[in-house]
Amino acid sequence: MRLANLNGRAHLLKPEGAIDIAKASNSEFGPDPMDLFTRWPEFCAWAERVDPTGPTSPYRTEDLQAPVPRPSQVFAIGLNYADHATETGLHAAPGVPSVFTKFTSSLIGPTGEITLTGPSVDWEVEMVVVISHEARNVAATNAWQHVAGVTVGQDFSDRDVQMSGTPPQFSLGKSYPGFGPTGPELVTVNELTLDTPLRLQCWVNDDLVQDGNTGQMLLPVPALIETISSICTLYPGDLIFTGTPAGVGMGRTPARYLASGDTVRTRIEGIGEMVHTFTSTREGVG
């Protein structure tokens, strides 16, 4: 099952087009995508009964918004790929995730323009996990049972802000408006082969800058959920950005960052692709 947010309304996506969930269910489920996560088991049971040959509507890619627009919590994992940790010169303690948050005001959909905040804005392709059931003290062996699905994410970062101060301002530097794109759709767990790594790629204009796979994670998704849920209660619709492979701008010699007019294309095999263009630095900055 593939879920999308089309102009603020929850839809099932089929190769032929989109199905408006509220209309198809005769209002058994509302149009708000967030409502699905509060009734996830019921929704999945209904979705299995949807006529696969039923009517669909065409849609435009630019009408897709963040599949989970208002999560209660957004967790993000730093340094979860060894090569990325090496290129940044930073390393998390073995077996312990480096956890921060991206504030929900940073979330946007899979296309559009993003305003540069200064001269050091960087890219990070990430697989984003969406929680389906409340999770507290979940063992790694049961973790996938608490996952609705995954989507494509970008953890854009203003490195000057992120690295300012002691300790660094990870959450603030990664939470400007537009710095948390997700989409284009949520792919449910039953569509995935969980033990098969997914390829993650990121292009800046025509230059492939990141090319890795989820099998390179130092701490896989079940371990992340086990650790986070041992401290925080995870709620339906919560997001976990799971880390990025090597190839970010700050890890290059010399460092390379985004400039006005640059287009960032973000892709995860089997999930989808996002495209964003950066515009001039906001007034008074840079």
UniProtKB/TrEMBL annotation:
<dbReference type="InterPro" id="IPR011234">
    <property type="entry name" value="Fumarylacetoacetase-like_C"/>
</dbReference>
<keyword id="KW-0378">Hydrolase</keyword>
<dbReference type="InterPro" id="IPR036663">
    <property type="entry name" value="Fumarylacetoacetase_C_sf"/>
</dbReference>
<keyword id="KW-0479">Metal-binding</keyword>
<dbReference type="GO" id="GO:0044281">
    <property type="term" value="P:small molecule metabolic process"/>
</dbReference>
<comment type="similarity">
    <text>Belongs to the FAH family.</text>
</comment>
<dbReference type="GO" id="GO:0046872">
    <property type="term" value="F:metal ion binding"/>
</dbReference>
<dbReference type="Pfam" id="PF01557">
    <property type="entry name" value="FAA_hydrolase"/>
</dbReference>
<protein>
    <submittedName>
        <fullName>Fumarylacetoacetate hydrolase family protein</fullName>
    </submittedName>
</protein>
<dbReference type="InterPro" id="IPR051121">
    <property type="entry name" value="FAH"/>
</dbReference>
<feature type="domain" description="Fumarylacetoacetase-like C-terminal">
    <location>
        <begin position="74"/>
        <end position="278"/>
    </location>
</feature>
<dbReference type="GO" id="GO:0016787">
    <property type="term" value="F:hydrolase activity"/>
</dbReference>
